[in-house]
Amino acid sequence: MRKLIVVSLATVFAAASGCDRQPKPAESGVATPADTGGSAKGDFGPPQGEPIKAVLTSPPLVPPPVDRKQPAKVIVELEVRELDMEISEGVRYNFWTFGGTVPGSFIRVRQGDTVEFHLKNHPDSKMPHNIDLHGVTGPGGGASSSFTAPGHETQFTFKALNQGLFVYHCATAPVGMHVANGMYGLILIEPPEGLPKVDREFYVMQGDYYTVGKYREKGYQAFDMQKAIDENPTYVLFNGAESSLVGDKALKANVGETVRLYVGNGGPNLVSSFHVIGEIFDRVQFEGGTRYQENVQTTLIPAGGAAITDFRLEVPGSYVLVDHSIFRAFNKGALAILKVDGPENKSIYSGKEVDIDYLGDKAGSGQAAVSEAAQATVTSGAPTREQQIAAGKTLYSGTCSVCHQVDGAGLPNVFPPLAKSDYFAQDKERAINAALNGLQGKITVNGKEYNSVMPPMSQLNNDEIANILTYVMNSWGNPGGVVTAGDVAKVRATTKRPEGAAH
Ligand SMILES: [Cu+2]
What we know:
Layout: H1 2-16, E1 52-53, E2 73-88, E3 91-98, E4 107-110, E5 114-121, E6 132-133, E7 153-159, E8 164-169, H2 175-180, E9 184-190, E10 200-209, E11 219-221, H3 225-229, E12 235-238, E13 251-254, E14 258-267, E15 272-277, E16 281-285, E17 293-296, E18 298-301, E19 305-312, E20 317-323, H4 327-331, E21 335-341, H5 355-359, H6 367-380, H7 385-399, H8 401-404, H9 422-426, H10 428-437, E22 439-445, E23 448-454, H11 462-473, H12 485-493
Parallel strand pairs: 1-2, 2-5, 3-11, 4-9, 10-14, 13-21
Antiparallel strand pairs: 2-3, 5-7, 6-8, 8-9, 10-12, 14-19, 15-18, 15-20, 16-17, 16-19, 20-21, 22-23
Helix pairs in contact: 6-7, 7-11, 10-12, 11-12
């Protein structure tokens, strides 16, 4: 595949300039701006032809390649909307957006284009906003020229001198808050000859979020300025919501195809260790610039930076996009799925899909059940027993089944059974306590002794633990019953935990 890309690249480039795309340093060993196709090279003269209205897309979609031989005047119209949207199941947040989505609309132009930029701020907005595009040469990247009050529209024009993948963001005070609320996106300034052709392109952008409530705490959640200052995010997400790229909304591609991800990091605080579990990037334009690296496992994307990652799909299955600062992926939401269909290739990979056990509810299977139970909590105060069981089944498969097994049977001498466990059945509070705080030391289950350690699961919220335990009580021949979020809350409140360990 690398061969494929390099070949097509070489052809394009041979036609365009007759040299290799990887820029060569000058004799001195120091690259000059001209060597790298920098701003000095990017002014291709005045725009030609009729002005063109830019096609903007919402994530994860990317506008089609520019495919133009000469510079043009391109008109971009972007509207700021402040919208209540779901950040996690049953959790609402007031996002500030460029184009109604987080990240904002994807903008795609060609190096040398003259961009006439219109920023509109919807009349329902409560705040003024502006835009700083990292692809703009000029003070503030457009910020001072685009300050726009609610119900107003501003306009400024810039020439796209440097090629690359650039972040744009709001730069209105308090800047950190505007960015934390989702005000960022990507603008791709294509090289004149375009990028190498691929089969599919996607738009993914990481951000960190700070809410007053804890991770997955239900209901409306306000922005927490102190957590933001402390750089202690509640959520780290791709495309602005936990559910944005999983389940039905997973990215989709086929075996044999080449995929390009335009990946940005809006921050405001965290640097991303971007990784796709089960893939190797054949080619990465690191930092969104001209040069590329090959055969990369994890690429670092700074806050306010981007990368273009290309890879070819050889084997079907679910590939998981993560921030490899891995607690962010499994405990703060930084997880997305690329679902690849097509024939197996046993010579490359032997098989056995692991995403159910490994990712649980995050993989999207049964996600609807979890959402339904969460929604019921918001609308009617509590889910029904059936909703709890359905949601608990999904949650169990992500957290408990790793040890206690999908059928609850445990593993002889290692993990005690939850199916027909007398230990579990005898004392509800003790079971809640085990799930919440873990368990160690000698215990006897169904006449057999276990002396091992179960880690605390206090990262799960009260609803989640209640649903899991209700599922266990009603499965595998167990006697039935219900655990409510209130039951869990009581046990949690009476548990002493070291400072900082409490959920
Ligand atoms: Cu703003």
